[in-house]
Please model this.
Amino acid sequence: MVDIYNIDVKDSANSNISLSEFAGKTLLIVNVASKCGLTPQYEGLQKLYDAYKDRNFVVLGFPCNQFGGQEPGTDQEIGEFCDLNYSVTFPIFSKIKVNGPEAHPLFKLLKSDKPGIFRTQSIKWNFTKFLINNNGKIVERFSPRVEPKYIRKEIEKIL
Model:
């Protein structure tokens, strides 16, 4: 079985980061996009991060361009957009694929462990959210339309 902490990702500067760096923290992993109708959720994600970061909570944003071409920018452009428009301070990683044969191993694990409605494993759209407890267990999957403020109760249960 693949452990979430054995997976490497690339940060926005294209450097390898082991998710083991987040061991012991509660995580909210989100596939994000800058030109989506749901993009304003960045504000809510930042509010969650601000509210709980002192309790070992981290939001991890993974830009993805697989849904309507809504994340066309470079990693640098994405970072600048997040900073300028939403003052994002949580980590935004390098752009990845979340579906298909080239899906990143992180999202393969998330989807297989917490399938969506009707047990489908594909990510349906930008801003699908996965809540992971401080032991690396995937606790819950939230659809793109679930706004971050509605996840607070679930976060508080496991902090």
User: Anything to note?
Assistant: Strands lie at 8-10, 16-18, 26-32, 57-63, 129-132, 138-142. The first helix runs from residue 41 to 52. Helices lie at 41-52, 75-86, 105-113, 152-158. Residues 65 and 72 are 6 Å apart (CA to CA).
